[in-house]
Amino acid sequence: MTDGPLSKVFENIEKSENNLVRLCQDLIKFPTINPPGNDYKACVEYIGNRLKNRGFNIEYVRAHGVVGDCADYPRYNVIARYETGRKGPCVHFNSHIDVVETGDGWTKDPFAAELIDGKIYGRGACDMKGGLASSIIAVEALIDSGIELKGAIEISGTADEESGGLGGVAYLAEKGYFSKDRVDHVIIPEPLNVDRVCLGHRGVWWAEIKTHGRIAHGSMPFLGDCAVRHMGAVVASFEDKLYPAMAARFTQMPVVPEGAKQSTLNINSIHGGQEEGNAGLPAPCVPDSCRMIIDRRFLVEEDLGDVKSEVTGILRELETSREGFRYEIRDMLEVIPSMTKRDAPVVVATTEAIEEVLGKTPDLVCSPGTYDQKHIDRIGNLQDCIAYGPGILELAHQPDEYVAVEDMVNAAKVMASSAYKLLMK
Description:
This protein is α/β, with parallel strands linked by helices.
């Protein structure tokens, strides 16, 4: 802890613990499940109304025309900016408001936001409404302390991070909201654990593979050509060739957890054949089409072109060696790895803040999955960006997801201290 100018800020945060809990609970109660993109407008208006009452200028930005934006599920974002009235840099706290589907296995109501034994349970508690709540409390405490800050502070609540961020940070970056003439330092309160600073992430390539066959009656499959069996050959080739090759590759990036230091491939889904009827009875046909979605996470040491070539090479080989094999492949998303330098201002400030608040030197890590830093870096050309926030990384997207109140309080102190250090230089 500190006896300097931040002592009042930390005191304000400690006194605001109940306020922090209520704020986090309120945010969780918005079931902003993506897809399809529920309740975005209501959630961002809640954030905007709160910060408007604290002197922030509020903008609501709808990402018209992006994938998923429609009348029923508009892609809304909120950007709140506080001007100190004194010349200086801008520190931006960016949090996504969308959450993944709940899935099975919950013992708590996913959107009741129950507080039990110092933990708030709910979908999005960890990823990342706890971090959003901490950033708001941190900035409010900093402003309320009476310190004469320089520059500006921004807080954003953005859409669609869980589906690539195209309706959120990517759209805003394209519109100049993450440009160098507006923002200098960015902290994204993703749940990478309260005592770590995340410098960046691995790369990602999402693709759709389709195999084709010929329809026939299921009693005479020899008259048709089964597209599902062709897809099975693709999976078998992945098992025999691609997975062993990836398992032999390791990165020098400080990626956590340990298993993510390797290249990985997830088969997200496979869909084949005709739809079952209303009674659930199967269509008596040979499947003439099958499609698979793949999620390839690659290392900074790998080239995206080579990553794609490994997969297309397998498909071309099957086209030559397997009778009747026909395929299509379509890119869905591609992001190169990103990593902020260890001596960047936001890294140094947050490292010092963690040492100050928690009394330990934080690990500098990289995330196994991408997050919105990819757009801030690639589109906004802002390299002074990290992820830091409360929450245990491995709880993200799990049943009975939670965030610890103590971690939120400590994260708020770290965020406030980091912002202070960056604004007062």
